[in-house]
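Dig into what follows:

_____
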Amino acid sequence: MRLLNTSTIQVEEFLSNEIPEYVILSHTWEEEEITLQDIQAGALNKKGYTKIKTCCSKAANDGFLYCWIDTCCIDKTSSSELSEAINSMYKWYQNSRICYAYLADFEESSASVIENYRSFTESRWWTRGWTLQELLAPNVVEFYSVNWTEIGTKLSLHEQITEITGIDEGVLCGADPSRRNVAVRMSWAARRNTSRIEDQAYCLMGLFRVSMPLLYGEGNRAFIRLQEEIMRVREDYTLFAWSPTIVPGYSDPHISKGLLAYSPSDFIDSRDRWTLRDLSRFVAGCFISFHSTPS
């Protein structure tokens, strides 16, 4: 695992059994992010360097010698390293001492978050697929505005975060997300987006405790593979508790073949819509239909 030294802003590598305490950054990617190659070459004239430098300074002031930032702690030119990193990322966030959630499009003011609630909810950070695990995995999440003024924590803002995300307060206050059924967890991702369609699946692997190889170019097949992996490790019929989503620009919903959903958005109503009786009837009907189909 690579970590940034908060004093030198240089990358250091550690074996899995030698990793020191570290803080971790959650953010949305902007223009001119600093890469690992930029750090190694000393090419630090991009816009993204300010964010890295300020994050390291904040971590150092909090007493930490190391921090982890995805833009420059992963060699994205190596497909094998990228795959290993994405499969490990949930654990890396989970093992961090503090996660700094940096909302680059939220400006603080003298008013509280409650008074600025609309601006807080409209931050792009709440719409990204990857930030879901970055919210859930760490024990401590601290939110910061564009100028690195602390807004609050996952615990202190749990009521507002529940309203924004649909994630119940129990989970935000420390309950294990894996104790929620598959449909509920999928519903947390239903309104989130990723730049690459395959990442809709890859960003959820840690939340469902599964691993699988990355195959960029496979499109929505990645989400099918995710559901297949979930079925292998957990018997939870709420995986089938979804409804086709109407996609803007198409006259018909994007319907997946078989029992598996097309994308996380198909679970958008699953948290509240399906009772246990409804689900039992649905699953029974699917199996009856399957077994009655002529071979």
